[in-house]
Amino acid sequence: MTVRFDVNGRRAEVAVEPRTSLADCLRHHLGLTGTHLACEHGVCGACTVLVDGEAVRSCLMLAVQAEGRSVVTVEGLSNDAALSPLQAAFRRHHALQCGFCTPGMITTAHALLTEEPDADADRIREVLSGNLCRCTGYVGIVEAVLEARAAYRGHKADAAS
Fold first, then answer.
1. The pTM is what?
2. pLDDT tens digits for 57-85?
């Protein structure tokens, strides 16, 4: 089947088997390897991407379900010139060690802060509880997301007007 969707602001047209997951399509057909696969059951959050602005487990979504939609991977959250404020905060707070969970954490946090730029530490922990990390203990991750909130506050107001 041919599926057409926008990925990171560019039009993609990909021939896939009907059973191909969105994660496999992104990684193997489009070369976007920032989307990581671990459990392949939607439990760990490593494969989280944004579909029409919503955080989605790409291992549980079929590529054909992305037809006509907008998909953003971790690669689409910044440009080549600089890290996004959220990525820079992760770096400053040492919110990663091995880095395997980081793309899913950043994508999930981005979705949260886009909707709730004033989310408190408890809300951040609640939302990120679906993303598993075996290295960091989450303290630096929560601190990074708390710091990055300031960068999202203006965006919410801009979108409302």
1. 0.91
2. 999 999 999 999 999 999 999 877 788 99
Q: How far is Cα 112 from Cα 26, in angstroms, rounded to an integer?
A: 22
Q: Are strands 70-72 and 48-51 parallel, antiparallel or unpaired?
A: antiparallel
pLDDT band at 155 (very low <50, low <70, confident <90, very high): low
Range of the domain at 90: 85-160
Please compute, for residue 124, the number of CA atoms within 13 A of its CA located in the half-sphere on the CB side: 24
Radius of gyration, CA atoms only, the chain: 15
Residue 108, sorted as left (phi over 0), alpha (psi -120 to 50) or beta, turns out to be alpha
Model confidence pLDDT, tens digit, residues 14-47: 999 999 999 999 999 999 999 999 999 999 999 9
Same domain, 54 and 109: no
- With CA atoms as reference, report the closest residue to 57 among 32, 22, 9: 22
Q: Residue 113: which CATH number?
A: 1.10.150.120
